Amino acid sequence: MINFSHADVPLWAAIVGSAFLLVGAGLTLIGTFGLVRLPTFYERIHAPTLGTSWGAAGMIMGSMIIFTAASARPVFHEILIGIFVTVTTPVTLMMLGRSALYRDRSELNPGVPPKGADDLSTTDENSAETLS
Amino acid sequence: MTRFLPYPILTACLALMWLLLAGFTSGQLVLAVLVAIGAARALKALGEASPPVKRWLLIVEFIGIVLYDIVRSNLAVASILLSGEGRPRKSGFITMPIKLRNPTGLATLAVVLTSTPGTAWLDYNSTRGELLIHVFDLVDEEVWIDQIVNRYEKPLLEIFE
To answer: Is the same domain home to B110 and B155?
Structure first.
């Protein structure tokens, strides 16, 4: 495992690494504010993606820079975190989005696109058409 | 070759991942290769089809485009969130037809649309080939459709089909 003391980190690496860390953490924080403050569900699902894209990437870059400089050998296994976060986010987001869509369509809430014409359950589709 | 080693790229990636996590020693290398080959053969037993990939250079270019767009849309969405209610903003749904049919290609498109803040993949109708997305800052519907078709779908069609 990686053993190092803080004195081993050169100044340039500390500055660059901290900058990435701050950018990543800042973007994630902004996304969290958005999640709380935005009015509708569909707008809200956009805000946390700041944290899962460049928010996470910034923190990963910061970690890679500081640990590479400190241990004097390339450290890049953090990249795996980025890959797995990126690949798994759509699964959660799609499930949330589709369940919200399903509920809005069955409750006949306005502002939701109707189901396609040749979809199986025609009851939802008919009522959605009279709305729009 | 394909009988013994069904998914060469996946096997290499798994072995590399194992070595990244466990540290590089000769013992771990042997273990990594064995685990990777075992996992690839297990996937083969599940009958998953390997996507035919034709244009390797285009993949690199595509990753570049996506990374650039992710940075750009991060800044765009962050500035909207910070500006608060300063300017009127409209978000909305877009239903658009797409030509992409390959499951791996569609999965890649879903990852791209999701990791770019400001667009969210909601639903895909496979019989009609229609994609339903939600866009955070919807100024012009045509611009978004044009961007998704030309920047993402075209390269993916060339890579996977």
So the answer is: yes
